């Protein structure tokens, strides 16, 4: 029987994905299009900016396959009653690891001082070794584990934190509320790679920011809702937090008048930490369609109750 795949994402992506999906599903009797009668659609390749919100008319739908790793905009959609798979893409993971490691090294090596202060003053102050620096990675999923692994291989003392207990070589893994407190009290640099769910909202707030050693640094490529913005601004003003690098925000684009833009101890990047890479991501989508058609379980399923 033929299957129909609806591509519902930013229109500019269609010319890029169309040949990749067609190639990835070659040999199958398949129609892939951006416009199909809802009652004929078997799979939706989905991103929130495709505009699809009401899945009620999609009566024959078998699964929704997200192009994004973060699924907070669809996980709670009550019109969706079929399985939802999120994106775990080698290219996305590699990009995130590079971004995180780059920003950790910026802090670790004190690069700003040398890049911005070409003031004629010869004042050697060599950085410590990575083994003398503790990096705490909040979230040990596809992205957090990859970044933590590379940081550990560079010699950093890496503590990871997740919802469930884990054993990962080279990483001290903690979990649960008590684990968060223990992780933060030791962290020189905190990296947030948690999903945006009701349970993770404001993970960094006035109370948890106060647990960090004075002068700690924050790197957030996760989601804006993970941080209480007012509490962070206050902690930056008192010096409790020396600097924050923020890639994601509650409102995006970050409004021009937002205090983060003007704060001397904040670096704003415009949600570019990493992105889904079509060449590798299309393969993930096609593999999942083939698996489902062969009666095998879908990979990367979202737990709708947990929201990730
Ligand atoms: P995963 O679902 O693979 O991992 C999520 C991790 O967070 C897991 O380790 C999970 O714990 C942990 N976690 C979830 N809820 C809690 C909680 N309540 N307490 C403690 N830990 C928790 O996600 P990914 O690694 O693929 O992606 C992480 C996030 O990165 C995405 O949700 C997205 O928001 C963001 N992202 C940002 C991008 C950017 O460009 N800025 C690009 C891509 C993603 P456990 O392992 O126990 O389940």
How does this structure look, described?
- The protein is an alpha/beta fold and 308 residues long.
- The protein folds into two domains: 3-89 and 276-293, Rossmann fold, CATH 3.40.50; 90-268, NAD(P)-binding Rossmann-like Domain (Rossmann fold), CATH 3.40.50.720.
- 30% of the residues lie in helices and 17% in strands.
- It has nine helices and twelve strands.
- It has helices at residues 14-24, 90-109, 111-116, 142-153, 176-184, 206-209, 229-238, 259-262, 278-293; strands spanning 3-8, 30-33, 43-46, 63-66, 84-85, 134-138, 157-162, 172-175, 189-192, 216-220, 241-246, 266-268.
- The protein has a seven-stranded parallel beta sheet with strand order 8-7-6-9-10-11-12, sandwiched between helices.
- α1 (14-24) packs across α9 (278-293).
- It is elongated and about 70 Å long.
- NADPH dihydro-nicotinamide-adenine-dinucleotide phosphate is lined by residues 69-70, 88, 92, 139-144, 162-164, 193-197, 199-200, 221-223, 247-248, 271, 273-274, 308.
What is the C-alpha radius of gyration, as a whole number of Å?
Answer: 21 Å
- Roughly what is the average pLDDT, rounded to an integer? 97
SSE pattern, N- to C-terminal:
EHEEEEHHEHEEHEHEHEHEH
Class derived from helix and strand content: alpha/beta
CATH architecture term of the largest domain:
3-Layer(aba) Sandwich
Biggest sheet statistics: 7 strands, parallel
> Strand share of the residues?
15-25%
What's the total helix number? 9
Query: How far apart are the first and last residues' alpha carbons, in Å?
Result: 32 Å
CATH class of the largest domain: Alpha Beta
Number of strands: 12
> Which ligands accompany this protein?
NADPH dihydro-nicotinamide-adenine-dinucleotide phosphate
GO molecular function: NAD binding; oxidoreductase activity, acting on the CH-OH group of donors, NAD or NADP as acceptor
Protein name: Glyoxylate/hydroxypyruvate reductase A
Keywords: NAD, Oxidoreductase, Pyruvate
InterPro entries: D-isomer_DH_CS, D-isomer_DH_NAD-bd, NAD(P)-bd_dom_sf
